[in-house]
Amino acid sequence: MSPAAPPYDAVLLLSFGGPEKPDDVLPFLQNVTRGRGIPDERLKEVGEHYYAFGGRSPINDQNRELLKALRESFDEIGLDLPIYWGNRNWAPYLTDTMREMAADGVRRAVVIVTSAYPSYSGCRQYRENLEDAAREIPGAPRIDKLRHYANHPGFVGSFVESTAEALSKLPDGSAIAYVTHSIPTAMNATSGPDGNGYVDWHLDVAASITAELERRTGQTRRTDLVYCSRSGPPQVPWLEPDVNEHLEVLAADGVPGVAVVPIGFVSDHMEVIYDLDTEAAKTAEKLRLPMARAATPGTDEKFVTMLRDLVVERAAAERGEQPARPCVGKLGPAWDDCRHDCCPPLRRPTPQKEAV
């Protein structure tokens, strides 16, 4: 029997977006930082990260691959829902996609956001984007957001396997550096319904991955949560330490190697291929510290199946049923609906790169 989809008649994949060619880079960065007073000269400096890769972010292609994988996964179980795709900062723009959904007769949809953790930039800002788009479109569909999925077995399990693969390339006794996008400390302080959610969730996910690896191997190893992609004025405190500074500490401590595990990201977009595969890799090489980077979930079967199952789970919950809500770690499953005061915006938002 195929799973029931009501009350939903569509699924929306919502992501950050990225430039597809060199001429897109500056307009894209202007979209990202609109209203923050950042001069074009500074944006052009940031744009060099994109120009180094041909002026094309990988994030849109990765979303195209995810859409294909989701469609195939839905079809495997007879989940007959159309899947749409919209971005916050580049084509296909969210407003255009929601206008298409309304024209197609979609009345209620569930949204998959390519951000797994609670924070303003990773959750509430996307909800604000949905609300803003809906105000512009007559007959816009009602859209419900899936719960945060960072501690779902499908997300954690994907990282367990990729971390094990990375460690297999390194000397015995190598450390693990779990990496995520840095955010202002003030944003973390108000993330989640009770504050500190961004860091707490990352620590819990890291602990779950570590525990499973130790269970498999019987080995304990050094683990740390570190950050990348800091931006904004230097006087504003952001979460630390930076991954490059952490690599220097590991080398000074005589660690034989390090697996860099980007648990804050669902795919290999710019923060991963530039900040980790380029900058951090150069730092490790300079330090003569063996480093291997674990893969992000991308279109891993565990991850794709998880997203499909979360759609089915949320539909069941909206029908008044009591579906199973799988999770690992100590925090329990996330909430379906965010409180009105959850993850408030900072008074002076700071620049960000791709999705947190």
Q: Can you put this structure into words, describing what you see?
A:
The chain has a four-stranded parallel sheet with strand order 2-1-3-4, sandwiched between helices. It has a four-stranded parallel sheet with strand order 6-5-7-8, sandwiched between helices. The radius of gyration is 20 Å and the shape is globular. It is of the alpha/beta class and 356 residues long. The chain folds into two domains: 10-149 and 299-319, Rossmann fold (3-Layer(aba) Sandwich); 153-293, Rossmann fold (3-Layer(aba) Sandwich), CATH 3.40.50.1400. The protein is built from eleven helices and eight strands. The mean pLDDT is 94.
Short description:
44% of the residues lie in helices and 12% in strands. The protein has 356 residues and is α/β, with parallel strands linked by helices.
Keywords:
356 residues; alpha/beta; Rossmann fold; 2 domains; four-stranded parallel beta sheet; 11 helices; 44% helix; 12% strand; ferrochelatase activity; metal-binding; Ferrochelatase_N; cytoplasm
